[in-house]
Amino acid sequence: MSFLVSFCIIAFLMTIISILSSSSTKKTQESKVNGPPSYPLIGSILSFNKNRHRLLQWYTELLRLSPSQTITIPLLGNRRTIVTANPENVKYILKTNFFNFPKGKPFTDLLGDLLGQGIFNVDGHSWSSQRKLASHEFSTRSLRSFAFEVLREEVETRIVPVLSAAADDAGSTTVDLQDVLKRFAFDVVCKVSLGWDPDCLDLTRPVNPLAEAFDTAAEISARRATEPLYAVWKVKRVLNVGSERRLREAIETVHELVSDIVRAKKKSLEIGMGQEAKQDLLSRFLAAGHDSDIVRDMVISFIMAGRDTTSAAMTWLFWLLSENDDVERKLLEEVEPLMSVRLGFEELKEMSYMKACLCEAMRLYPPVSWDSKHAANDDVLPDGTHVKKGDKVTYFPYGMGRMENLWGKDCEEFKPNRWFDSEQEITEPVLKPVSPFKFPVFQAGPRVCVGKEMAFMQMKYIVGSVVSRFEIIPVSKHKPVFVPLLTAHMVGGLKVKIKRREVKSHP
Ligand code: HEM
């Protein structure tokens, strides 16, 4: 009898194992099409957890296997995530059916404590009214020339002297170029947004408290999104423990310091300072009659959006140039004649090879690697993917830059020439128009980056000023590691030696 019972139990267990293993094989085969293996109740949590420290590579591998370059990842306790590298889908999400794909509460919750009601973190009416004002100000000649003067001063009186000092040290000084560019970008964005100078490039002074608090707040807010369970950070926040406690303190510092600047600016506007003092965004937003708290949130959004993006793009470009002598030589051929005159808007517009280099660097290392929306209602994407209300829908510039069907077999290589109509040498190379939905590094559609033109102006000016004067020599021969966070970073910075170039004259 006991033998019969044992036999029945073993037979039963073997049947269960064989059903589970066949369903798992089936799922694995299906996963080659739609995403990672997924099981009832737990979804893809096992493979997600296994890959959570290499999500960029994991998503890219899965997207390459998907015929329509779209994958779906169901996760226990979290909403489904749909990730796409398909330009038709990207266009649908960012433009055609824009209103069905707002950032949504799950996203705005992540950054809400830091960004409040600022443009970067709101949808609907609040977003559209801030967007109108911001787009208007960014299109004015006065803001553009103010930003250009800020840039010129920062380059000539700060970044060039810092690099010159390192070069004069006959190669004994090592500079973290990523850190220098981050400090530079923070100075520029604060001067343009607040009319206030944090003077971060004075390396003898301690790190500016606003810059430090911003760094901490941005990093911890970004890490909230990588928790396997959404509830984890929410519980930590309620209990005010660990990283959430540090986040709260950093946000208090950011809010207090920016509020002080807003108050001081308001006062100076009331007592009628000269035109000079009213050029920055803060003065413009206050002059448009907005309340101090909203203006505080608006400028915090601008600092957030403009601080680490340009520095990330330039850090990767400098590293790529150090690996590609032929590209660097060609860039110098374009830049040197222009640098010998006093650079202005017109000269910057002419730098088409420079623009190709910047785009190519951002194609491979996009400052914003992924960006998510949340479906307001059920929908179907152009490739047939069904979207359910509440799903997280992510477009993925990092993966898109690595899809062979979009960029060819050499998609992993740094080749600025791919941005020109013809690879042949012609007298006046013309940049190819490329769909922003294939290259959504600045996003696209109604919410496209407001600072895009300003960012190109900044990057062209700095890269031109630096490469024409200095040779940048990375200390390590290893390939740097790219981490996404809110804005991408190079792990450990970019440690370089600086050597002065034998150059033509500079103004
Ligand atoms: C290489 C540099 C830059 C890149 C790659 C970049 C990229 C982006 C991306 C992907 C977004 C969409 C983010 C989202 O909606 O979640 C965005 C939005 C935005 N960017 Fe940039 N950005 C850059 C520089 C700047 C600069 C210099 C500024 C301003 C000083 C700026 C201001 C903004 C603002 C205000 C938004 C929000 C627009 C809206 O929601 O309507 N960006 N940017």
From TrEMBL:
Residues 1-22 form the signal peptide. The keyword Cytoplasm does not apply. One of its GO terms (molecular function) is iron ion binding. InterPro entries: Cyt_P450, Cyt_P450_E_grp-I, Cyt_P450_sf. Its main location: membrane. Its cofactor is heme. It holds the Pfam family p450. It is found in: Membrane. The keyword Signal applies. Heme binds at residue 449. SUPFAM superfamilies: Cytochrome P450. Belongs to the cytochrome P450 family. This is Cytochrome P450 94B3. The lineage of its organism: Eukaryota, Viridiplantae, Streptophyta, Embryophyta, Tracheophyta.
